[in-house]
Amino acid sequence: QVQLVESRGGLVQPGGSLRLSCAASGSISSIYFMGWYRQAPGKQRELVASSYSGGSTNYADSVKGRFTISRDNAKNTVYLQMNSLKPEDTAVYSCNAKKWTGSGAAFNAYWGQGTQVTVSS
Predict the structure, then answer these.
(1) Distance CA 93, CA 91 (A)
(2) pLDDT at position 53
(3) Phi, psi of 117 (to 5 degrees)
(4) What is the mean pLDDT of residues 100-108?
(5) DSSP of the chain, one letter per residue?
(6) 34 has which bridge partners?
(7) Per-residue model confidence as pLDDT tens digits over 23-33
(8) Which of 23, 72, 74, 108 has the most C-beta neighbours closer than 10 Å?
């Protein structure tokens, strides 16, 4: 089992910055995928940033150039640095991890509790 504990979100003005963290209960070096999702009111859940165990990352077009995902293996924590925030970034952000079960291509998925980020003047 993997337990994920997210930091608090908050209220930030447009153009501002905010960093979210997601701390895992154990080593994240063995977790193939860690990512950040968000869901805005009335919209489907969106994957905004991905981090893979091999070191690669990926971003949704809507946040590319503004958001950065990173892993700190020593602290078993993944971060989402959000810069140049826009009102449309307002959403509940959730940390997700996918860990191989050790059998075939099966993975287990784990979620953080979710945290509200509001961008408004």
Answers:
(1) 6
(2) 87
(3) -120, 125
(4) 87
(5) ---EEEPP-EEE-TT--EEEEEEESS-STT-SEEEEEEE-TTS--EEEEEEETTS-EEE-TTTTTTEEEEEEGGGTEEEEEE-S--GGG-EEEEEEEEEE-SSTT-EEEEE---EEEEE--
(6) 51, 97
(7) 999 777 778 89
(8) 23
